[in-house]
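hey all, quick one before standup. I had two proteins in the batch that finished overnight and I want to keep them in one place so we stop losing track of which output belongs to which input. First protein below, input sequence then structure tokens straight from the run.
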Amino acid sequence: MAPHPGIDTDSIKEKARKDLLDLLEGVRGKKNLVIEQSLAGPVGLFVKFSTLQDYGVDKVFFLENDNLDNSQKNVVFLASGEKANQCIAIAGQIKRLQQNSSIEHEFSVIWVPRRTLVSNKLLEEAGVLGDISVEELPLHFVPVDQDVLSLAYDDPFGDLYLVRKSVQPDFDLLFLTIGSEKIPHRYSLQHKRSCRYNTSTAFFPE
């Protein structure tokens, strides 16, 4: 079997950067960005704050700090759509600004990596779903080095599937599937307990 050529991490990083900047550009004018704290590190790997400023970001707030001010009409939230507590926090901050600010704010929510039924339901129950624009940032992998990818999840296994196909008696072919990406890896069954992962090798315990 020919060796797997690996993945072009530069192209993954550039796509993530372009996707995020396109979404920010779609919100015209100056805007404040409210970001989930666990996403700040991964996002910082592919886009600089100076670049965010070029795309209209005035201030950046951590969602968990609940200290968003009313200095800009446009407010963009960037958070995980699969975490109920983040959805509730976003709804609370939107309602607080609506009640206490003299500005008629425009709110956008960018869910990472996707919009979910849970996020829709919670925002609807809070009475703010109709007041916001909802987008998705399909950020599944974050390149941290030329041959190393990090999963952009605190708890990835709900969205990670390993499909085994036997190719000979003592080898298996595994497909790591994240979203629509499939990364094949051929490994010896004697090494099942190894958990090292990079773009050219992928070992997971059974």
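OK second protein, same deal, sequence then tokens:
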Amino acid sequence: MGRYDFRPLRVHRTASQLLASERIKHVPSWHEVVGTVPPAQSLVRTQPLQHQERPRSRHVRKPSKLFQPQRIVYEEDKLRKEFFGDHPWELARPRVVLENDGKDAERKDWSLVSQPDRPIDGESVIQRQMFLIHGNPEMGQKPDPSMTPAKAYDQARKEFYDMRLQQDIERRVAKEEAMATGAYFGKSTLQIGMELEDKIFEEWKAWASAEVILQEQKRAAMYTGVNNEEAALPEGEQEVEAAMEEVGATIPAQGQEALGGAAFVP
């Protein structure tokens, strides 16, 4: 066969010949698909597109992962990991992920963290941080050389907190104005959660009180010498048991002769 094995390229032709000679009774399910879309005839593996520069070494040797595609990594990914790691509940807020062409954020003026046509969220902090680090060359805004990623993160985060605080105050004032005119909003999610928590706490409190009383009864029975079986005996059986204990010392043990005295018949 030589250096290369061409048998995989002839699978469809071989199967067709076997079907023509009736050596195969049923047509394989892949036969029509392979005939319509045959495998590639080129035996040369092309190197994938390089997104990053590989470190060069003085020793020339064949790379072990030459034909594997490189991992696509963006600078924003690291910033998102840091922000959402510090603010995990931001991922629970509903978001609109619909975009026109995927470059909507590049057309915004991120000199401010808030945008008039989109709600503020974690992605606003990321884009604001990128603006503080690199600026916006398309708008003629150059980056600040003294701005580090940590400083940019702190500044963007502070602006984000101020906007969220302003939104909370606006919602609170709007609710008070509506209630002043007769509106009724019912219980909030926080109130419902507190009521459920109080209910579970009261159930646990009743169970804990019963357990404490039971433990105290067991401890008292341990020191008084009265166990649960004796306490559960009826009054008549308790009297018989007490009489047996009184005369138990006068009854001779098995194999021992009686030394006199009145006979006892229980």
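Flagging for whoever picks this up: The chain has a mean pLDDT of 80. The CA atoms of residues 88 and 161 lie 15 Å apart.
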